[in-house]
Amino acid sequence: MRRILAIVALSMLATGCTATTGGTVVPAATLGRAPEPLAASALRGLLLTEGELDNILDTSGMTVVGSAEKMYVNHTPDDDCLAAWVNTDEKVYAGTDWSAVRRQELHEDREDYRHAVFQSVVSFDDSLAADKAATDQAKSWQRCDNRRINERDVDNPDDPDHFWSLETAEEQDGIHTMIRVAEGTGGWSCQRGLTARNNVVIDVDACGENITDEGAKIAEQIADKVSDKE
């Protein structure tokens, strides 16, 4: 019996899975095959264009004001909540074995801009690593629910306090979100949007007056671009 099972197993390895249709053996459809990981060279094309962001934010003239291929570095009095308010921070992604990052900062092309976007994509070796990085990070947000945090740069003695109120971490359709509101600004707020698709973590921050779901929408559209390249 063991010999028969061994022969069957070897036959499957040699010929692949098959199905019988009308008495004829044909190759079976491939089920559950993971998509090929995207190369680092594809990351830049995943970020939303200025026009795509204008449509989401109901703005005009969103402009790239900064871009980088490295993580942010932040040191604040409340570093235990870094993951909840800043995207692609070096400390937050430490130990996740990420391989490449592309990020952009954008706002309207005027001095008194009313919206800002920080959009980033981070590649990993495979989808399992990307999923784990996003899930673990989102779990850490929960300990910061309803926290008041100070974003002051502790490395700059002249930097004043910047207090924000974090709301609660949420998740819908695989996209993790958290809103924070800046104190004393008349409603300036930001929404984090975090998700994973294939081997890419999408990590964004959408800011403006009375922000609601813009961060989630940006993350979703970037995730759709990942799927389009699979």
TrEMBL record:
Top-level taxon: Bacteria
Protein keywords: Kinase, Signal, Transferase
Residue span(s) of domain PknH-like extracellular: 39-225
Enzyme Commission number(s) from the entry: 2.7.11.1
Class of this enzyme: transferase
Signal sequence, renumbered to the chain: 1-19
Pfam families (alphabetical): PknH_C
Keyword Signal: yes
Record's keyword annotation contains Kinase: yes
InterPro entries registered for this protein in UniProt: PknH-like_Extracell, PknH-like_Extracell_sf
Molecular function as annotated in GO: protein serine/threonine kinase activity
This protein's name: Serine/threonine-protein kinase PknH
